Every structure is written in C-alpha cells, then in structure tokens.
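Consider the tokenized backbone below.
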C-alpha cells in the first residue's frame, strides 16, 4: 500500500497562483497512491473559492473520500483535513483537538501567535490482509495547541491495537521535544529532507509515522505543487 501526506494549501497551484484540484489529482494518481491524507482543504461555502475540494479530488481519482471539518471560516465556509482512499472505509470520524484555555502565546518576535481549532481524521481501512487505523492531522502554530494535539493522538494510539499510520503537517521540526511522545510510540519513515517551503525548502514539518507495519520505501516528493512537498511511504503487508 502506497501512502501520501500532502498539505495542498486549499489546492492552490503555487506556480500559476490559481486553485486547481486537477493538479493534485494528478500528483496522487501519478504516484499510484492508495491512501492520501490532505491538509488545508476547503469545503463548500459562500466565500468565493470555497468549493467541495474533497469530492473534486475524490471524483478525479475514483476514490472513497471524507472531509473532516476543523473550522468554518468567517462562520460560514468549511475548512480542515480530508482523506481519499482506494479502499472503502470500515469507519471514519472527525476527532476535535481541544483548544488551549490560555491563548496569549507570543512568537519569537514577540507577536501574538495565531490560534486555530484543529482536528484529527480517524479512518479504519480493511483490505485483503490487514485492518489499519489511519490518523490524519494538521497541528497548530502555537506550542500549547501542539501539546494538546500530541496528547489527543497519544490517547488514540494507546487505545488502538491494530496497526496505525499517522500523517500530516505537524508544524514541528524533528528535534523539538513536543514530538517525543509520538517518536516513543511510533516509527517515522526514513526521509530527512525538508518539506517546507517548497520553493526554497528549509525545514521538515510533514511526517508519516507508523506501527505494526513494515515500511519498504519512503521519499519526499521534491516537486512544487503547493507550498509543501508531499511525503510518500510504501508499506509491505
């Protein structure tokens, strides 16, 4: 099974500056991906440019699909994560990450940090040989948001007895202590190349973690689609 995690920046074609879901359909199709976790996906809403991107990508691939809403932009237009899968879902749900109680954090320059409610998609996939729990998420920029995200994920992972694949944009570099609980529970695919920003990659913040499976290949796709590079991993069942 070939897996991809991809922050698609609301399907913005970075080179042309236009929304183009077909570009991302082809990026997934050309690499024969069986399951893809997508971040920064728009749903249908009254704001211009807010269309049903999950169904557009799912239809283009002929895949099963699910949209996990994290927020409504301006209270009207859905935005969050999505998954598309060659295999049907045995079950799929959106799990919300609790917002920090104190939202007064400052960044390194002393400016207020942007806070945004985040979520996790939990999808159970059953193929001929395995039942797998897929977790797809997009961490916040504030440290307190990311701490809550890790705690929520660890609670899910600790209660899950089947193999797990966790993927997404973690907004965290590999040596940051926030990720330690995940590294203690899961393996991470062996690609150390930076994933962001795609036009001049400097940092690695997009990951695929796993347990209970054997990873036989992984790569960072160094092609400019959106502002992140996708990461691909192949698992042997």
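A designed sequence for it:
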């Amino acid at each position: 099974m070939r897996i991809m995690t991809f922050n698609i920046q609301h399907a913005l074609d970075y080179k042309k500056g236009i929304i183009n879901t077909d570009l991302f359909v082809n990026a997934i199709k050309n690499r024969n991906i069986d399951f893809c976790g997508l971040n920064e996906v728009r749903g249908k809403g009254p704001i211009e440019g807010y269309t049903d991107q999950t169904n557009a990508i799912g239809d283009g691939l002929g895949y099963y699909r699910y949209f996990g809403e994290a927020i409504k932009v301006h209270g009207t237009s859905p935005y969050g994560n999505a998954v598309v899968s060659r295999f049907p879902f045995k079950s799929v749900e959106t799990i919300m990450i609790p917002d920090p109680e104190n939202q007064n954090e400052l960044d390194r320059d002393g400016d207020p940090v942007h806070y945004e409610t985040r979520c996790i998609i939990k999808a159970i996939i059953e193929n001929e040989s395995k039942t797998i729990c897929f977790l797809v998420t997009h961490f916040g920029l504030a440290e307190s948001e990311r701490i809550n995200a890790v705690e929520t994920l660890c609670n899910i992972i600790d209660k899950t007895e089947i193999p797990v694949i966790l993927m997404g944009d973690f907004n965290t570099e590999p040596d940051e202590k926030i990720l330690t609980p995940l590294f203690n529970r899961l393996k991470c695919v062996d690609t150390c190349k930076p994933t962001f920003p795609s036009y001049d990659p400097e940092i690695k913040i997009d990951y695929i973690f796993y347990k209970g499976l054997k990873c036989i290949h992984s790569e960072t796709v160094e092609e400019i689609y959106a502002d992140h590079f996708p990461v691909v991993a192949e698992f042997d069942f």
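The longest strand covers residues 64-73.
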